[in-house]
Design a protein that fits this description.
By secondary structure, this protein is an alpha+beta fold. The protein is built from 4 helices and 7 strands. Strands 1, 2, 3, 4, 5, 6 and 7 form a 7-stranded mixed sheet that branches. The chain is globular.
């Protein structure tokens, strides 16, 4: 009959092997905080009319769908941002988005959120909201970037073309 030590030693070896080979779990709270920070930085860049800073949130392989655009790409997004942020005849302001939930799974994060945009032109203001779902992917440099998103508004902003 094996001794207690003979029974415990193989179990200890198996437990050590499982611990060594088990994948490390990401810190979802830290990932969530990093995604929130990226969204806050985007808002600040947009409001400052910083096109490069605003484009920085998006992954190079970005694909998105919004009203009248089904398969938008990074180049289109950044080009459109440059046009709208370059206008001096309107004032644009996004509030920090209301985040309804963030789901993290490995190197992918899904964010359901609401954006609020206020536009002023010729002394008139209009505020609209946009519902969206952003799919973030951790990039090779470790930063979270939006790789896919879909957004819609129930009413277009009256002051935007």
């Amino acid at each position: 009959m094996p001794t207690l030590r003979q029974c415990i030693l193989p179990l200890a070896v198996i437990a050590a092997a499982v611990t060594v080979t088990a994948p490390a779990r990401a810190d979802s709270a830290a990932d969530e905080a990093a995604i929130r920070q990226r969204l806050e930085r985007w808002t600040a860049a947009f409001n400052a009319k910083d096109n490069a800073g605003a484009c920085d949130l998006f992954a190079p392989d970005l694909v998105y769908s919004i009203q009248d655009v089904v398969n938008g790409r990074y180049e289109t997004m950044c080009g459109n941002l440059a046009k709208i942020l370059g206008r001096s005849d309107i004032w644009l302001h996004y509030a920090v988005p209301a985040i309804h939930e963030i789901i993290i799974s490995g190197d992918v994060g899904v964010v359901r959120l609401t954006w609020t945009l206020t536009v002023r032109r010729n002394g008139v203001s209009d505020t609209t909201t946009e519902e969206g779902m952003d799919v973030f992917r951790r990039q090779p440099d470790g930063r979270w970037s939006i790789a896919r998103y879909i957004a819609f508004t129930t009413r277009p902003n009256k002051l935007l073309p």
